[in-house]
Amino acid sequence: MDSPSVLGKSNELFERYIDAVLGWPRMIMLSFFVVLGGLGYGVVYLTISNDFRIYFSEDNPQLLTFERLEEAFISQDNVYFFIKPKNIGKVKTPVFQADVLSLIKELTDEGWKLPYSGRVSSLANYQHTLATKDELFTNYLIPDELKLTARNIKQIKNIALNDPQILNTLVSKSGEVTGINVQLTLPENNARAAHEAVLAARILADRLREKYPVTILIAGSAATNVTLSEAVRSDLFTLVWVSYFLIFGGLALLLRSLSGTLVILIIVSLSVLGTVGTFGYMQYQLTPVAGFVPSVLMTMAVADSVHVLVSYYYLQRNGLDKNAAIREAMRINVAPVFITSITTTIGVLCLNFSDSPPYRDLGNMIGFGVMLAYFLTMGFLPAFLSLVPGQQYSVYRYRLHPMTKFSNFIIKQRKILALIVGLFVLVLLSFTSRNTLTERWHEYFDDSFEVRRAVDEVNRHFGGLHSIYYNLDTGIENGIHNPDYLKELSQFAEWYRQQPEVSHVDTFSDTIKRLNKNMHSDDDAWYRIPDDSKLAAQYLLLYELSLPLGLGLDNTINHKKSATLLRAVVSKTDSEDLLAIDRRARQWLQDNAAHILETQGSGLDIVFAHINHRNIRSMLVGTVLALVLISMVLMLALKSVRLGLISLLPNLAPAGMAYGIWGLLFGHVNLALSIVICMSLGIVVDDTVHFLSKYLRARRENNLSSEEGIRYAFVTVGVALTITTLVLVTGFSVMTLSSFTPTRETGILMAFTLSFALLVDFLLLPPLLLFLDKALPDRLFRYS
Hints:
Oligomer: single chain
Distance between the termini: 13 Å
Number of domains: 3
CATH superfamily of the largest domain: Multidrug efflux transporter AcrB transmembrane domain
Largest sheet: 4 strands, antiparallel
Number of helices: 26
Mean pLDDT: 87
Number of strands: 13
Low-confidence stretches: 1-10, 394-400, 780-784
Radius of gyration: 33 Å
């Protein structure tokens, strides 16, 4: 009986469809332009957010803890000015020079004028305390009226370098560098507000650099968020266009067809425009993660179109006229392209299991765009081809095709190839265990960005970069006056100071001990927690009454006086180490702090450290589900359970090999890299499905032997797979030029994955098919 192809023989419905496309090509093309142009207009409604909160779901426990911390104390959004005198190394403690101290005073005053500024902390306005009998006096460390004489500077220096609340936060121990922190109170929709504040800070820094002999670098959470959006915007307007140029230049060379390259360019552009515009109408907020959308859509649109075009050119070379070649090229590719589009969509939709909303949006945008690319390939492409002149080729047999020689080599050397490539796969897979799941946000940018230079300098001179915050609550109003609580607070701070990773600890207990010392004639013996709660409350009241407006204790004590905030500054490290020290700290509190309610570390660094682990776990569930669904699709499409299971090897191995070589070379997987397997899965399946579909077509429809089937598959699809792999690896390799580390690393890993996909499909899959065809000749190709 007649044998159907891999998804069934071309039926009457398909014939009617292709008749309509070829009969009304101009109408078909115009319809696509009108519809996708209309969808594309939605880009004007897109907004871009650089608020870190958008990376977390509303019920994320770490985000909720962080928000409660901000409600109890003060917002953690900030701009930080790092100041380094240019004569460092030539002068001892160069911060304590008249011109540098004048700069600190001026920048402190100007810092209050920055948009959304809520609090400025610096050496200039640090509240130095003195007591006379029963009176407590506070004053700026560098008062406005103070003349910066040598004597006064020496006094300022002695106070600053001997105050634990200043060292390694406002000034380094060496006195070589200093910092000024501007706490921001941003509105809820803070993308534009953060840009406004950071832009004003940059203008201020530029003005002061010209006036004073210092290096000023800007960091802080607001500056980091703004830099993040700037880095991604730069990539979108540079690397994407470079990728376009290289990919379509490569297609023009490899396809040797200007019209073929042009139609792929149109399909890619319409796919991206229609996708982004559609999500604009839906009021989506774009994040830096969305920068991957054009690259992935370009990948799939190119792959779909190239397979049809290569088949079309091949059929023309074998004597078919233009319309007949279009019909047959569409018929033999409609099923494989549909399968790869569906499997790619399934793969990227598994990103909906992500704990981070931007990655869910990424999966949905790519899934929608992939299906747009499919419809364009099935409708716009044949309509376009019918309107351009067909190329004239001399008829030749596929045995003379260059791929025939390659397939002969594969068939002849199948045993040795299976052994060598199989061992190579296993070796690389063994290195996947060397990867650790961690996040290094301080390495997101290279040193071309001011923020990266600033954090490196801060870590070098202050010995710390990451802040962990603890909301240490008594559960009792005015409970912070309890001496037992204050002693536990002091002991916890001392425990943290003994940790090798920690450079500075900010705690209310230090303030109380300093006040107790002040009220006892500055006798060092009284630098301790008072034994009387009423005395502690009195000291606190005196201190609060003496503080100037804007420099109160709202950043340290909550309004009920039931809790205080402790901040530990940790040296530059990754998320795993941050979580480890937090676990040790919480264990210490559990064992030693009876008057402190159970709590956990918080702050931006800790919140992002947790999201990596939460996302990896949820992504594993999504990936497994995607693999099950893709396997079922392939079994149905190939009409063979065995072939569906066999296809898992070339579908899974490339990503595993890529993560293996990543473990060998780098050894860490962050949030961005964890989604590569989902983004690449459908693209890898594309290679496998097209090769198997052509192989099965040869075996089932043409009744060719297994060896002839391998030759047929290589001849009909080998060139297309090679072209798509070359151009796509080139496109993703361009991402390695990015100054934004997640983009650069994702490009590298995607390039590895696609390269390994071609290697496995060309060198391992054919020997495996030949072996199984010999072992299971009757059951392997059963499609009923």
